[in-house]
């Protein structure tokens, strides 16, 4: 389960095809639900900005 404050990996792809054009590490700032899709606002460390990602485009970094 993804929560606000979690450190995640994010992936940005080209439109509808499954080719990654960028990726990095970020932190979840908030989450919203639009119909059945979860949208997360992510602070991207690499770009020093905030972008929205669907749940399928992020993954939690496990603390070990």
Q: What portion of residues belong to β-strands?
A: over 45%
Could you tell me the radius of gyration in angstroms? 11 Å
Morphology call: globular
Could you give a short account of the major beta sheet? 5 strands, antiparallel
**Share of helical residues:** under 10%
Number of helices: 0
- Oligomer state of the chains in this structure: single chain
Overall pLDDT level: 91
Secondary-structure-derived class: mainly beta
Q: How many β-strand stretches?
A: 5
Helices and strands, in order, run as EEEEE
Low-pLDDT runs of 5+ residues are none
Strand order of the largest sheet: 4-3-2-1-5
> Kindly, what is the distance between the CA atoms of the first and last residues, rounded to a whole number of angstroms?
17 Å
List keywords for this structure.
64 residues, mainly beta, five-stranded antiparallel beta sheet, 0% helix, 61% strand
Topology of helices and strands:
Blueprint: E1 7-13, E2 20-34, E3 37-44, E4 49-54, E5 58-60
Antiparallel strand pairs: 1-2, 1-5, 2-3, 3-4
Structure description:
This protein has a five-stranded antiparallel beta sheet with strand order 4-3-2-1-5, with no helix packed on it. The protein has strands at residues 7-13, 20-34, 37-44, 49-54, 58-60. The protein has 64 residues and is mainly β. The chain has no helices and five strands. The model has no long low-confidence stretch (mean pLDDT 91).
């Amino acid at each position: 389960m993804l929560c606000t404050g979690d450190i995640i990996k994010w992936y940005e792809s080209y439109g509808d095809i499954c080719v990654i054009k960028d990726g990095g590490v970020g932190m979840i700032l908030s989450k919203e639900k639009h119909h059945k899709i979860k949208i997360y606002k992510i602070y991207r460390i690499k770009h020093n900005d905030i972008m929205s990602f669907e749940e399928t485009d992020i993954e939690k970094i496990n603390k070990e």
